[in-house]
């Protein structure tokens, strides 16, 4: 019985140390990709920058820099890839589902051992239930994040539609400006024709007046000369 108690105490201390080490990883700036969320690794701290790669749920990354104003963190992923991700998509601990799978394996292993201590299985079961509750909470958070992602995608789609409308309006404006230039040319040509026609009309009137001015006196003089002959 004393040996079993010592074994249970040793295992409890070991589990406490493991939990303490997991807590200390937060201070080492180690983070994990959020559970069930598409984590995009980008070249810069905004959704406008190019996507470097997709991080899988539970992927461990090293935080190199934080931009609190924009809500992004610069990280180094496994394999050496560096880029920016949304800070809210990072977790201080591994994915709850991965921990749950590990605990399931531990429970299976503990139950398969006939001589294994029952205290260890009880502790693991307790932690299993705790993580199950955490998964429910994480899934609720994920639902909120997914709604945010849908809103972001809708906003991006609206921005693309607005940009398309803007380009279409620019093209229409270019066409209208070309038509305006053409109308101005036609107006200038028409004005030139009108001025020329008025010039010709004035010249004709002037010529007719001069001609009449020369002919009328002669006609009157001939009439007078005829009357004088009588």
UniProtKB/TrEMBL annotation:
<keyword id="KW-0732">Signal</keyword>
<keyword id="KW-0812">Transmembrane</keyword>
<dbReference type="InterPro" id="IPR016476">
    <property type="entry name" value="SH3_dom_pro"/>
</dbReference>
<keyword id="KW-0472">Membrane</keyword>
<dbReference type="GO" id="GO:0016020">
    <property type="term" value="C:membrane"/>
</dbReference>
<protein>
    <submittedName>
        <fullName>Bacterial SH3 domain homologue</fullName>
    </submittedName>
</protein>
<dbReference type="InterPro" id="IPR003646">
    <property type="entry name" value="SH3-like_bac-type"/>
</dbReference>
<feature type="transmembrane region" description="Helical">
    <location>
        <begin position="198"/>
        <end position="216"/>
    </location>
</feature>
<dbReference type="Pfam" id="PF08239">
    <property type="entry name" value="SH3_3"/>
</dbReference>
<feature type="domain" description="SH3b">
    <location>
        <begin position="28"/>
        <end position="93"/>
    </location>
</feature>
<keyword id="KW-1133">Transmembrane helix</keyword>
């Amino acid at each position: 019985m004393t040996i079993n108690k010592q074994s249970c105490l040793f295992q409890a201390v070991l589990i406490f140390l493991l939990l303490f080490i997991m807590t200390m990883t937060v201070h080492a700036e180690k983070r994990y990709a959020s559970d069930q969320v598409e984590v995009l690794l980008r070249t810069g701290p905004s959704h406008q920058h190019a996507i470097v790669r997709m991080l899988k749920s539970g992927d461990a990354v090293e935080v190199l820099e934080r931009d609190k104003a924009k809500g992004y963190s610069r990280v180094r992923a496994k394999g050496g890839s560096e880029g920016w991700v949304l800070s809210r998509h990072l977790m201080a601990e591994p994915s709850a589902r991965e921990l749950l799978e590990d605990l399931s394996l531990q429970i299976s292993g503990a139950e398969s051992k006939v001589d294994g201590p029952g205290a260890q299985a009880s502790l693991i079961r307790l932690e299993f239930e705790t993580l199950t509750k955490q998964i429910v909470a994480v899934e609720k958070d994920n639902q909120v994040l997914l709604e945010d992602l849908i809103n972001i995608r809708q906003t991006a789609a609206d921005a693309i539609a607005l940009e398309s409308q803007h380009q279409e309006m620019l093209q229409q404006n270019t066409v209208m400006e070309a038509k305006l230039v053409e109308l101005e040319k036609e107006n200038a040509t028409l004005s030139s024709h009108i001025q020329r026609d008025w010039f010709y009309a004035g010249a004709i009137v002037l010529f007719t007046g001069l001609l009449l001015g020369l002919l009328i006196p002669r006609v009157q003089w001939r009439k007078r000369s005829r009357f004088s002959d009588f």
